[in-house]
C-alpha cells in the first residue's frame, strides 16, 4: 500500500483539508480522492492529490 496526500484550499490560500490515505495504485487513489472531494462537497475548490513520488493525480485551481 502506498500513502497519498489530498489537500484542499480556499481562494485566499487557507487550507481546508489535509488528509492522507492509502491505496494500491495511482488509479485507485485517484478514485478515492475524487470520492472524498465529492462527499465533502469540495470538488469545486482548489485541490490537489499527490502520490508518494510527488506526482499530481488530481489538481483543480
Automatic annotation (TrEMBL):
Lineage: Bacteria, Bacillati, Bacillota, Bacilli, Bacillales
Natural source organism: Planococcus halocryophilus
Protein name: YhzD-like protein
Amino acid at each position: 500500500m502506498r500513502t497519498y496526500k489530498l489537500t484542499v484550499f480556499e481562494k485566499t490560500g487557507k487550507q481546508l483539508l489535509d488528509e492522507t490515505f492509502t491505496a494500491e495504485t495511482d488509479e485507485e487513489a485517484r478514485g478515492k480522492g475524487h470520492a472524498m472531494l465529492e462527499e465533502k462537497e469540495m470538488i469545486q475548490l482548489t485541490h490537489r492529490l499527490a502520490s508518494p513520488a510527488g506526482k499530481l493525480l488530481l489538481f483543480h485551481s
